[in-house]
Specification:
This protein is of the alpha/beta class and about 280 residues long. Helix content is about 40%, strand content about 20%. The strands form 2 sheets. It has a 6-stranded parallel sheet with strand order 1-4-3-2-5-6, sandwiched between helices. It binds pantoate (PAF). The site of pantoate has 10 residues, from strand 2 and helix 6.
Length: about 280
């Protein structure tokens, strides 16, 4: 049965009871408006422990001024239905006042990582993410937490935070779930007009093309390839923020001799008023 908790205290009480019974806890943090991508995280969570906790919280501190905080889709009843079907044990749906009781003086900043790629275009975003995830970890105290690879930079940021701050939670990344045409599932896809939705899959096409070029070509000029694919996205009607080829663990640019490195291609691009992100490992 799905327990719905709205207060920090009620989450702590329930988790304490599970722990007394030697049950471990797997946690899936979300901002709600659940789709198949989130539900895949819940399925993965089931594989890693006895109890699955999902949080639904549209975290104001990770939205910059002028971003979509107020229009971000909130679908509480449907989310609860889906979590009941998918057999989560608890959903934590706090009000903002539960998560930010007094003006907070403490923030968690993962230096360097939070200022690059998406961080360069969304000032304060990753500080907000790291801070709220740290708070949620302290509330839920999970043994394991599950994140989607769709938000690849976020996943690396959280892994770094957990390692740097010696948090005892294991982080697991789950591959991106895509529509039939290849577009990565995201709550923000519903902002797209019909025409934009029809061309949105080209983002993934360009990622795949880049991956193939990286595999098939020796002595690649990364900066040149990035620029070429950035331009190609523009020709397809996107307004790219960045198109980058990076080391898949550190998110640093590839070393000159990178035969041992696994690379990841990351992109953020606007289609009209909608900012899409995606990535692909090489
Ligand atoms: O990926 C998300 O939905 C959010 O960034 C997260 C991890 C739930 C923190 O608010």
């Amino acid at each position: 049965m799905l327990t719905i908790c709205e207060t920090v205290e009620s989450v702590r009480e329930q988790v304490r009871e599970w722990r007394q019974r030697n049950q471990n806890v797997v946690f899936v943090p979300t901002m709600g408006n659940l789709h198949e991508g989130h539900l895949r995280l819940v399925d993965e969570a089931r594989q890693h422990g006895d109890r699955v906790v999902v949080s639904i919280f549209v975290n104001p501190s990770q939205f910059a001024e002028g971003e979509d905080f107020t229009r971000y889709p909130r679908t509480r009843d449907r989310d609860i239905e889906l979590l009941t079907e998918r057999v989560a044990d608890m959903v934590f749906i706090p009000e903002i006042s539960q998560m930010y009781t007094v003006p907070n003086l403490t923030v968690v900043e993962v230096n360097d990582l939070s200022g690059q790629l998406c961080g360069a275009f969304r000032p304060g975003h990753f500080g907000g993410v790291a801070t709220v995830v740290c708070k949620l970890f302290n509330i839920v105290q999970p043994d394991t937490a599950i994140f989607g690879e769709k938000d690849y930079q976020q996943l690396i940021l959280i892994k770094t935070m957990v390692s740097d701050l010696m948090m005892s939670v294991k982080i697991i990344g789950v591959p991106t779930v895509r529509s039939d045409d290849g577009l990565a599932l995201s709550s923000r896809n519903q902002y797209l007009t019909d025409n934009q939705r029809k061309s949105a899959h080209k983002l993934y096409e360009v990622l795949k093309e880049t991956r193939d070029l990286l595999k098939d070509t020796n002595n690649i000029e990364y900066a040149q390839l990035e620029q070429q694919q950035y331009n190609s996205l523009k020709q397809h009607g996107f307004k790219p923020d960045y198109f980058a080829i990076r080391d898949s663990e550190t998110l640093q640019p590839p070393a000159a001799d990178n035969r041992q490195q696994q690379l990841v291609i990351l992109v953020a691009a606007w289609l009209g008023q909608t900012r899409l992100i995606d990535n692909l490992k090489v």
